[in-house]
Amino acid sequence: MEIRPTTDQDLGVFVDTLHTAFGRFPDTPAEGGGGVWWSAFEMDRSLLALAEDGRPVGTAGAYSFELTLPGGALVPVGGVTAVGVLPSHRRRGTLGAMMRHQLGELRARGEFLSVLLASEAPIYGRFGYGPATYTQRLTVPRRQAAPAVPRAGGTADAPAAGSVEVLRRAECGEILEEVYDRYRRAQPGALSRPHRWWELRAGQPPISPAPRYVAVHRDADGVPDGYASYTIGESDTLTVDETIAADDAVFSSLARFVLEHDLVARVVFKHFPPEHPLRWQFEDFRAGEVSNHTDWLWVRLLDVPGALTARGWCADGELVLDVTDPFLGEHGRHLLTVRDGRADCVPTDREPDLSLDVRDLGAVYLGGTAPSTLVRAGHIRAHRPGAAAVADALFRGERVPHCLHWF
After folding, report:
1. What's the pLDDT score for residue 34?
2. pLDDT band at residue 14 under the 50/70/90 scheme
3. Are 14 and 59 spatial neighbours (Cβ–Cβ below 8 Å)?
4. DSSP labels for 118-153?
5. Both 7 and 46 in a single domain?
């Protein structure tokens, strides 16, 4: 078997091989090109696995993204995508060979993190990826959506100053791109959406050309600072693809706007952030039904010291982390010292406080999974009392990480 990088001339073969692996057929591009989810593939970052007779039997790609870390740092990451092996060539080591080859290429680019969305949860843990952000769905019947009565000293239920304007998706592409970019720079766990994604209309709504209405929120000066992309379907259900807001007040204003839409029985918020305060703003706390709570962004560390010193920290302390990487056959013991929001991470011979797999380090890296949870689950071993509590305090971020971007 041969694994080789691809060029632009390989796009057709790559797309056909990928779709065959999943038993699907490629979509037809929209008029003028683009408009399909795969149109933003970066062929200089993609791989083809070839059988002995030269036939393509597997694919793996990567996008060039920026990831927002706790503390606000923006770092380049490889967004792994389009991974598939033909049914006739599975369980022959093809997937593992492509993953190992790809991780080597990511390191050669100087990227110390890799991310992906896992089609099946059991697959990518063995390659060192851990679930690092989570998302959920919130369904709210309109008749139960009355706002809570303001409490003494409370401000959370006050709408943001400004206005909401309804536009069609085709009318506001630049607004969406600008608002999303400001949002993702402040939200830990968020990924960039490169301009070419918007230009090619690649991905899911509201990036894609699928018809949508967009409620655009403008601040008191008329500057767009939030939007909600939505459509109304069967059973009088208004479904919000995503809500992007500069702060909680803007989010609340957009939520109230869609919840007050005429001829709608219920509103479904897809990709509703965990621990968001909206449910507390209803008079009936049970009005919002949470469902489809699931993992979203998976993270893999390629350079443990580089990754740990790149993010910001909200507490001081130190830990000795004994980290194994079974897939790459690597092992390291690191002294993590945090002072005033910054970390130092150096090799050490000291006895470890925690022993963990690189996939578990990926899960806790953004602060979306508590180390103590993985200790209780038997994934991480704590070597002394209190080590898990110290790790919880260190890895917790100032905001819960959340990722909306689909790739």
Report:
1. 61
2. very high
3. yes
4. -SSHHHHGGGT-EE--EEEEEEEEGGG-PBPPPPTT
5. yes
CA–CA separation, 236 vs 118, rounded Å?
32
274-302 b/e with 16+ CB inside 10 Å = b? eebebbebbeeeebbeeeeeebbbbbbbb
> Tokens 């459509």 identify what position?
231
**Residue 27 pLDDT exceeds 90:** no
Which pLDDT does position 150 carry in this prediction?
73
| Catalytic choice (127, 134, 327, 407) | 407
CATH value at residue 324: 3.30.1050.10
16 and 99: one domain?
yes
Active-site entry in 65, 112, 124, 395: 124
Question: Which pLDDT band holds residue 3 (cuts at 50, 70, 90)?
Answer: very high
The CA-CA-CA angle for residues 137, 205, 167, to 5°, reads 105
Listed residue (217, 208, 200) closest to 170, CA to CA: 208
The DSSP line for 270-299 is EEEPTT-GGGGGBSSGGGSEEEEEEE-EEE
> Residue 390: which domain range?
307-395
> Residue 405 — φ and ψ, nearest 5°?
-70, 135
Q: What average pLDDT does range 281-290 have in this prediction?
A: 95
Is the Cβ–Cβ distance between 303 and 345 less than 8 Å? no
Mean pLDDT calculated for residue range 206-233: 96
Query: Does the pLDDT of residue 157 top 60, yes or no?
Result: no
Instruction: Answer yes or no: is 93 a known binding residue.
Output: yes
Say whether both 288 and 200 belong to one domain. Answer: yes
Residue 92 annotated as part of some ligand binding site: yes
Catalytic annotation present for 124: yes
Query: Does 173 carry a binding-site annotation?
Result: no
Note the pLDDT tens digit of each residue in 312-330. Answer: 999 999 999 999 999 999 9
- 63 assigned to active site: no
Q: Is 91 annotated as a binding residue?
A: yes
**Is residue 155 pLDDT above 60, yes or no?**
no
Domain end position, chosen among 96, 111, 126 = 111
253: Cβ–Cβ under 8 A, 6 or more apart, which residues?
159, 160, 162, 164, 217, 226
**Are 318 and 188 members of one domain?**
no
Give the number of domains in the chain. 3
Phi-psi region of 275 (alpha: psi -120 to 50; beta: other; left: phi over 0): left
